Amino acid sequence: MGYDVHITRREDWFDEDGPAIGIDEWLSLVNQDSEMRLDGFAEARTAEGPVLRIDSPGLAVWTRYSGHEEDGNKAWFDYHDGLITVKNPDQEILTKMGLLAQQLSATVQGDEGERYDQNGLVISAAESTAVKVSKPWWKFW
Predict the structure, then answer these.
(1) In which region does residue 21 sit, left (phi positive, over 0), alpha (psi from -120 to 50) or beta (all else)?
(2) So what's the pLDDT on residue 128?
(3) For residue 80, which of 137, 4, 136 has the smallest C-alpha distance?
(4) Gyration radius of the chain over CA positions
(5) Is residue 44 within 8 Å of residue 51, measured between CB atoms?
(6) pLDDT in tens, 107-133
(7) Which residue, among 1, 7, 16, 5, has the nearest Cα to 112 in the 3D structure?
(8) Neighbour tally for 68: CB within 10 Å
(9) What are the distances in angstroms from CA 31 to CA 34, 39, 59, 62?
(10) Cα–Cα distance list, 14 to 51, 80, 95 (Å)
(11) Could you tell me the pTM of the whole model?
């Protein structure tokens, strides 16, 4: 399990209501960005040897990520339920997320409600207008 950061238009990423990013918008943005590639799936070999595969029509990879390895590490951006999620992003990926969020008129928000600016830096609680970490009890994981 990891820590997710989301590109969202909703007040909080976990809200069920509110403006969503459309799949067509996301696919258009990926197709226009020469650094992004739409794969629609991700594969990784487990420590035991088998390959784990996830299929998702909006799954894209950032090919210009400095940690990108064609047969290994990748920066995956997964579209689902009206938002884009990246697992365990580093500062470089958070910066890319900030740039993509600007183009989508969206914000970047972590699992615990913290918000990030367009440079991928955490906005302090005093600067953020919507830092709220309370979630429904059934969404704590």
Answers:
(1) beta
(2) 47
(3) 4
(4) 15
(5) yes
(6) 999 999 999 998 889 985 544 444 444
(7) 5
(8) 14
(9) 7, 11, 12, 12
(10) 30, 12, 22
(11) 0.83
